[in-house]
């Protein structure tokens, strides 16, 4: 399965901007592309509940639930990304700035604004509030993803023999181009575990994408606290 490399997508933002697109357009395009590709891959894996494999059934269905919830969070994130593309582009451009440098960049930008609506400072405040719900849900899911990732690794070792046998059956059927019972996530433990681990991988990538903005918001909150303390 094709794996999405989030850092490469984000880095392409600068390339797009250099090719004639505005930084805001690039930010929006990158995020839409990342979310769209992750969503497509999640949908391809499917969300069918598992009724077989009593020893790992709960794990498999918990992962399906996490994937569906992560997809909903991705939808919320995409909406906020579209509504605040200019803020995301500005923050990405300042991604390596210290709190003091970020403060100076905001002040410099706003000094050049000709209207209140053009100022980036108030827009960042609005974005912080808008992204808070998404960030909270994403953080909760990230903690669950870590738990299930560890559980999946453990189950792969515990059921290694059964998975190896199921792998052989699946590969043999593919070589024979069919024949016998169709192998699915509900009758082949290899396919079931492979799907679950792929779902965990995609959910992790989605969480990483969203957490980029979480980290930025934390930096802004730290800056705000520092300013209020002075």
From TrEMBL:
Residues 1-17 form the signal peptide. It comes from the Bacteria. Keywords: Signal. This is DUF3053 family protein. It comes from Pseudidiomarina sp. PP-1MA.
